[in-house]
Amino acid sequence: MAAGARGGSAALRRLRGGGAAPGGARGYSQEAEGSWFRSLFVHKVDPRKDAHSNLLSKRETSNLYKIQFHNVKPECLETYNKLTEEVLPKLHSDPDYPCDLVGNWNTWYGEQDQAVHLWRFSGGYPALMDCMNKLRQNKEYLDFRKERSRMLLSRRNQLLLEFSFWNEPQPRQGPNIYELRTYKLKPGTMIEWGNNWARAIKYRQENQEAVGGFFSQIGELYVVHHLWAYKDLQSREETRNAAWRKRGWDENVYYTVPLIRTMESRIMIPLKISPLQ
Questions:
Q1: 18: alpha, beta or left, given left = phi > 0 and alpha = psi -120 to 50?
Q2: Of 40, 110, 194, 230, which has the most beta carbons under 10 Å away?
Q3: Cα separations in angstroms, 241 against 29, 234, 260
Q4: Residue 59: pLDDT band by 50, 70, 90 thresholds?
């Protein structure tokens, strides 16, 4: 039996027993129970047949993403941003590098004095290695890294694949704020997460707020990143509240909250060079 069906059976027993929904999810009626029963007939991927990276990612593309988190010395953040905005566009203007700049941000709410960068490698791991090998021979890049290192307290990165049912991140005009919601899942639950969100994403498309959804392949594992765009914090609040008024959204929350170990929200402001404005 697939993980989603096992989790669903346990949830149904709780519903019949009158248990409260976890995570503050809304109450359920017999109609919701019937909706859950109908969901059993929705096609679900079987985790026993293949790696979840093959089952959940876009098969028509071989895009690989890298997300990088830099914790910057507070007194250096302005200089760091200026150096980044000066050097990165030059590197990415070279068509010989199989790498696209997707987005660059400073964290506004969340971990302070932090920069977040997202790249796309068209062609997967071979493209990543090709780009890395070329950068090792690029003096301007090496000087940039040396100068940048003096400004950092720490840095970490992950290699990511994109969920097949999410939008692919495309440049957009601003001004926008961005929310990066990071979920660390219990090991073995990625398929169940994907099965639920493949249905739930339709509830979050009205205002084109869904930018991209990714899951980790290298670095910390069983990590999911959802990237959203809003005009401002008030728009974020209204958009998220509107989702609760749509039939089916509360079921997604009910079935995915038990899969999460920890979750984090960052509100981010784009740098001037970010294609996502």
A1: left
A2: 194
A3: 20, 11, 21
A4: low
Q: Which two tokens stand for residue 160?
A: 């990511």
- pLDDT of 20 higher than 50: no
Query: What's the domain count of the chain?
Result: 1
What is the number of other CB atoms lying within 10 angstroms of the CB of residue 225? 23
Q: CB within 8 A of 25, min separation 6: which ones?
A: 250, 253, 254, 257
DSSP secondary structure string for all residues of 123-160: THHHHHHHHHHHHTT-HHHHHHHHHHHTTEEEEEEEEE
Write out the residue range of the structural domain in which residue 149 sits. 63-162
Kindly tell me if the per-residue pLDDT of 78 is higher than 60: yes
pLDDT for residue 9: 43
Q: Is residue 215 part of a domain?
A: no
Question: Could you report the per-residue pLDDT of 96-116, keeping only the tens digit for each?
Answer: 888 999 999 999 999 999 999
The Cα–Cα gap between 125 and 94 comes to: 19
Burial class (CB in 10 A: 0-12, 13-18, 19+), 30: exposed
CA distance 54 to 60: 11
Residue in the block written with tokens 């001037």: 272
